Amino acid sequence: MPPQGPQTTESWVLYETDLNKDATPIVPPSAEKRKWKIVWRNVIIFAMLHIGGVYGAYLFLTKAMWATRLFAVFLYLCSGLGITAGAHRLWAHKSYKAKLPLRILLTAFNTIAFQDSVLDWARDHRMHHKYSETDADPHNATRGFFFSHIGWLLVRKHPEIKAKGHTIDLSDLWADPVLRFQKKYYLLLMPVACFIIPSYVPTLWGESLWNGYFVCAIFRYVYVLNVTWLVNSAAHMFGSKPYDKNINPVETKSVSLVVLGEGFHNYHHTFPWDYKTAELGEYSLNFSKLFIDIMAKIGWAYDLKTVSTDVIKKRVKRTGDGSHKEWGYEEIHELSQEKINQD
Ligand code: ST9
Ligand code: ZN
Ligand code: ZN
């Protein structure tokens, strides 16, 4: 039986330190009910964006020129890397370092993605890791799929987020002039990068501005938002836990493919400093790793952090759920068989 108790950050921290690793997996308790302060402006904007996104998907599949379709995919990859290789792995987790040209490139890509400035994104994400599955986690997945996917952007934040926010140190990010520039001019840069340029460029090869807008701006934007949100929702719910059975995040290959390698979420929450955000980081399922490796080859990325096989193996055996393909049930079974034979 998982322990029951009021859902506060403190109580969950207590459970964590009290973990008996051999006992039934201890999952974070569900959040207590709360009174929502709905932000209707966001509800209306996101509803309209999604209607426009569905129409854009229809144009993408049926009417857009091939060059326009390819450009939309190109923008998906660029803006996706601005989140994965940029806001997430470089800035929120400092899992590698980047020279100025790469920081400028990733900030530009990140602005195309319009998920708010890197400084704001990284602040919420550091909270998500530090206070995972509690009210101080902006997209607390114990509130269910809808809340962790999009709902958290439709309501005022929980007071715990603002109360505990001061425990997050962002001085390393504020020290970067590129990020300060993005934050200062965000309301000018974002519309140009996310909507105006993506809509205009396809007219250069004869596409209509209408198709350019709905396919390369709206559909592409809504698509990237939704696949990103899947990491907060699906990747905290449906999958296996080979590295740590005591947390909610899971491994999900299908999500990983569309989020450029960010679906190995049980691994990522266990070893958040690994630049691969996955144990193996095969390129086919981890386009972001391919990108960072190429950047490292040309000298723009350096000090790539990772985790040794030995540390991973020990952790898998200590806290994994047995589903690890090399050190899972069979190896655990063999070890216990050996022990029985010795006794
Ligand atoms: C978007 C973000 O979609 C998506 C993030 C997803 C993260 C996924 C992570 C998964 C791993 C990576 C996988 C990547 C995969 C990518 C694949 C790509 C192919 N700490 O926020 P406010 C304080 S954005 C400390 O307004 P409200 C602070 O004082 C979409 N303090 O709260 C703040 O003032 P300031 C586009 C904090 O009023 C003040 O509170 N953007 C913290 O409750 C007010 O903050 C939108 O649609 C903190 N963490 O409003 C905008 N947070 O900022 C949506 C707050 O001046 N957001 N404070 O310092 C909003 O409209 C509002 O934030 C709200 C809450 C209505 C949701
Ligand atoms: Zn993370
Ligand atoms: Zn997570």
From TrEMBL:
Cofactor: Fe(2+)
A Pfam family: FA_desaturase
InterPro entries associated with the record: Acyl-CoA_DS (IPR015876), FA_desaturase_dom (IPR005804), FADS-1_CS (IPR001522)
Compartments (UniProt record): Membrane
Keyword Ribonucleoprotein: no
UniProt KW keywords: Fatty acid biosynthesis, Fatty acid metabolism, Iron, Lipid biosynthesis, Lipid metabolism, Membrane, Metal-binding, Oxidoreductase, Transmembrane, Transmembrane helix
GO molecular function, one term: stearoyl-CoA 9-desaturase activity
Domain Fatty acid desaturase, first and last residues per copy: 66-272
Any one GO biological process: unsaturated fatty acid biosynthetic process
Membrane topology, as annotated: Multi-pass membrane protein
Chief place where the protein resides: membrane
Family: Belongs to the fatty acid desaturase type 1 family.
Record remark: domains: The histidine box domains are involved in binding the catalytic metal ions.
Protein name, per record: Fatty acid desaturase domain-containing protein
Organism from which the protein derives: Euphydryas editha
Source taxonomy: Eukaryota, Metazoa, Ecdysozoa, Arthropoda, Hexapoda
